[in-house]
Amino acid sequence: MRKVIVSMNVTLDGYISGPNCELDWHFDKWAPDIGERLGKELLNTDTILLGRITYEAMAKYWPGKETDTSCPRDDIPFACMMNKHRKVVYSNTLQKAEWNNSTLIKGNFKDEIKKLKQSGEKENKNIIVYGSVKLVSALTQFGLIDEYQLWMHPIILGKGRSLFRKSKNKSSLELLNTEVFKSGVILLHYATILISEE
Fold first, then answer.
1. Which among 155, 132, 141, 138 is positioned nearest to 28, based on CA atoms?
2. Quick one: CA dihedral 79, 127, 114, 149, positive or negative?
């Protein structure tokens, strides 16, 4: 079965955005070495799983970036992969998923994600989740996350939206590796070990 891997920017005090969903705190830490690492991350996946809000934001930003002269050269390979990868958006309210290679899924969340994990096993490529805090919360609740790649930024927000919400599952995380970037961002890569499921 393929893995679901959550890749998320997080502050030192555990927030993924400000109280009004502000994300400006992590854009100033973006650097070529982080872009290169994100590209390597995408090479090991073939599917990007997104919630509606993140999907709509990315669908407005990424199309055409690989030919946009204002796009930094270091970001072009990542932009190409973002546009070519299969995108799956889980939403019961979205009517169409028009971004290139996008599929809309609805219905029983747990069953749909299990089907997604079982599909494409011959290629042995994983599923990556970017942003999508509500989706991540649901995946956590059902014990469907196999790994976390947490991009820890040297910033303390003091308040905001936290990554981990209430979950009926108790999990332990095994540290697989860490990477330190020039900007001070530290990538913490964990595997999930499910301890209990209610």
1. 155
2. negative
CB–CB of 159/16 below 8 Å?
Answer: no
1: tokens are 């079965």
Q: What is the pLDDT of residues 123-179, one digit of tens each?
A: 678 999 998 888 998 998 888 999 999 999 999 999 988 887 666 667 789 999 999
Nearby residues of 194 by Cβ (< 8 Å), 6 or more positions away: 143, 169, 170, 171
Specify the pTM: 0.90
Q: Which long-range contacts (CB under 8 A, 24 or more apart) does 189-192 make?
A: 189/147, 189/148, 189/149, 189/150, 190/147, 190/148, 190/149, 190/150, 191/146, 191/147, 192/143, 192/145, 192/146, 192/147, 192/148
Burial class (CB in 10 A: 0-12, 13-18, 19+), 16: buried
Query: Where does residue 128 rank: exposed (0-12), middle (13-18), buried (19+ CB within 10 A)?
Result: buried
Q: How many residues does the chain have?
A: 198
Instruction: Check if the beta carbon of residue 28 is closer than 8 Å to that of residue 155.
Output: no
Q: Which of 134, 163, 149 is nearest to 11 (CA)?
A: 163
